[in-house]
Amino acid sequence: MSQFDQESIVYGVIRHIPSTEDLAARRERRTNWSAIQSLPVGLDDDFSLLKREMFSISGDDIFSGAYQTQIIHFAASYRAVEYEWESWLRQFESLLKAMHWVSATVHLETELSGKHTFNWQAEHGHTPSDAELRMSCEWEREGAFAI
Predict the structure, then answer these.
(1) Under 8 Å CB-to-CB from 145, ≥6 apart: which residues?
(2) How far apart (Å, rounded) are the C-alpha atoms in residues 45 and 142?
(3) How many alpha carbons lie under 13 Å from residue 68 in its C-beta half-sphere?
(4) In this structure, are residues 100 and 18 in contact, taking their beta carbons and an 8 Å threshold?
(5) pTM, rounded to two decimals
(6) Could you please report the per-residue DSSP string of 119-135?
(7) Which of 19, 37, 101, 134 is most enclosed, with most CB atoms within 10 A?
(8) Is the dihedral of CA 53, 42, 101, 138 positive or negative?
(9) Element containing residue 101 per DSSP (H, E)
């Protein structure tokens, strides 16, 4: 089996707690929506690992999925994305830098390397900027021990 026969699954969520002031909250949600819309459409760009179709955003009110927190979830299946993981992370962090958010979580499931969880936290909320982001990673690998 070659490296390109391996499937990798990536999924996660970006959470944003909008401002309590209605107009500011709408602006923040619109900024996040615009950042997602700026991603290439699947067939338009072969070089981007993030595509607009991967993402879905909750609505603007409690009746459409946003009680207090705006939820942006995403998922994709790749062919051995772990070999391009640094590029994937750079593209994802570039997206995060363009958005309002309080936390982001990415799960990477691979056949060879097990499961990885990547977390970003912004204690006071991130506003769009080029500020450096801090990420933590946890690794889980399932396997039998030979004795």
Answers:
(1) none
(2) 35
(3) 3
(4) yes
(5) 0.87
(6) EEEEEEEE-SS-PPP-E
(7) 101
(8) positive
(9) strand 101-110
Find the length of the chain: 147
* Structural domains of the chain ordered from first start: 3-140 (3.30.70)
115, 109 contact by CB (below 8 A): yes
* 45 phi, psi to nearest 5 deg: -145, 115
Output the six-digit token pair for 48: 């981007």
Q: From start to end of 6-59, where are the E strands?
A: 7-16, 55-57
Kindly give the residue spans of alpha helices, DSSP state H, lying in 53-100.
85-97
Q: What whole-number distance in Å separates Cα of residue 33 and Cα of residue 104?
A: 16
Residue with tokens 């593209």: 91
Rounded Cα distance, 37 and 3, in Å: 32
Collect the ranges in the chain with pLDDT lower than 50: 1, 144-147
* Backbone dihedral angles phi then psi of residue 91, each to the nearest 5 degrees: -65, -40
Structure tokens, 138? 């946890």
pLDDT tens digits for range 92-126: 999 999 999 999 999 999 988 889 999 999 988 99
113 by DSSP, 3-state: which? coil
Question: 3-class DSSP state for residue 22?
Answer: helix
